[in-house]
């Protein structure tokens, strides 16, 4: 979790981010206008890019330069990847909830079993037999 937070921490100015991504700063501005990137901004409106942003830039570069995908297609791919990540998180949360509920149900079943054992122990033997006929 800490590593994930570190990857989201915006630390690179546009010139450094462009250099690390092997593109021109104007390209980063274009990607922002198209909604492909959303860098953080300082109080003085300076764009700051994180490791996650750089990873996204590398993906955009691969999709556009090596795979021939246009920017509209890239945007759709990025949206689908984000939706997939959200679904994975939701599924993991549901699995945790299901495990918790299963444990609670098992505990409740055990309580009921124990209560029946107590009731059966209290009943006279002829009363017990009528439950098995």
TrEMBL record:
User: What Pfam families does the annotation carry?
Assistant: MerR_1
Keyword line: Coiled coil, DNA-binding, Stress response
Point out the coiled-coil segments of this chain: 77-118
Q: Where is the HTH merR-type domain?
A: 11-80
Q: Does the keyword Coiled coil apply?
A: yes
What Gene3D superfamilies would the database entry show? 1.10.1660.10
Query: Where on the tree of life does the source sit, at the highest rank?
Result: Bacteria
Q: Which GO terms describe its molecular function?
A: DNA binding; DNA-binding transcription factor activity
- NCBIfam families associated with the record: HeatShock_HspR
This protein is called MerR family transcriptional regulator, heat shock protein HspR
Species for this entry? Candidatus Hakubella thermalkaliphila
Taxonomic path: Bacteria, Bacillati, Actinomycetota, Actinomycetota incertae sedis, Candidatus Hakubellales
